[in-house]
Amino acid sequence: MKGTEISDAHAGARQPALICVFDIDGVLADVAHRLVHLASTPKNWDAFFAAAADDTVLSDGLTAVKAAQEREEAIIYLSGRPERLRRVTTLWLAAGGFPAAPVHLRPDRDRRPARLFKPEVLARLGGPAAISAVYDDDDAVVQALRAQGYPVTHVTWANSAQALIGVLQDAQETTGRT
Ligand SMILES: [Mg+2]
Q1: pTM of the model
Q2: Binning pLDDT at 50, 70 and 90, where does residue 49 land?
Q3: Ligand 1: distance of its center to the CA of 162 in Å?
Q4: Residue 26 gets which letter from DSSP?
Q5: Sign of the torsion formed by the C-alpha atoms of 64, 148, 121 and 74
Q6: Which CATH superfamily is domain 15-175 in?
Q7: Which residue has the higher pLDDT, 3 or 53?
Q8: CB half-sphere exposure, 34, CA atoms < 13 A
Q9: Of the N and C termini of the chain, which has fewer Cβ atoms inside 10 Å?
Q10: 111: CA distance to ligand 1 center in Å?
Q11: Where are the domains of the chain?
């Protein structure tokens, strides 16, 4: 009956907060101004990443993060940006008014597409049962996560740059560099 005792002892315990997961590029950050660096041949990844500090905030993204915060969910930022962009990313989030929260970035030598990298991180965070929502703009990521049972909000609010966003998604899918 030990199991019963344990569950009784925890009957009044607060449930752990659900986690609300936010992609950054195309969800919180408007990257349209730097996608030109990926439209060239060869793609200029250094220039693309170097310009990340100058992204403008997507107001719909900020509103969604604040709403999750008001629901007392745990915020996680999950981006396919390489780990070496951690400092510029955390500074940008703070300057943009986003709440401080864990930032998960792609290991520098991990060249897999985001549709493989992101589910692995989410599984470590507890899988679909632990997640209230995942906000992402990448079709391939959205499909992969939905197939695994995650509640995904497919973000399209950066669609003024939709054609260019397609360039980024294509680049992520074929080279796994972002
Ligand atoms: Mg994105």
Answers
A1: 0.82
A2: confident
A3: 12
A4: T
A5: positive
A6: HAD superfamily/HAD-like (3.40.50.1000)
A7: 53
A8: 19
A9: N
A10: 16
A11: 15-175
CB–CB of 93/57 below 8 Å? no
For 75, half-sphere exposure in the C-beta direction (CA atoms, 13 angstrom radius) is 22
Longest CA pairwise span in the chain (Å): 67
Residue with tokens 């943009």: 96
> Rounded to an integer, what distance in angstroms lies between the CA atom of residue 48 and that of residue 35?
7
Q: What letter represents residue 156's amino acid? A: T
Give the Å distance between the CA of 137 and the centre of ligand 1.
5
Q: β-strand 131-136 against 19-22: which pairing, if any?
A: parallel
- Amino acid found at 100: A
- CA triplet 39, 146, 102: central angle to 5 degrees? 75
**Per-residue pLDDT, 123:** 97
User: Residue 116 C-alpha to ligand 1 middle, in angstroms?
Assistant: 14
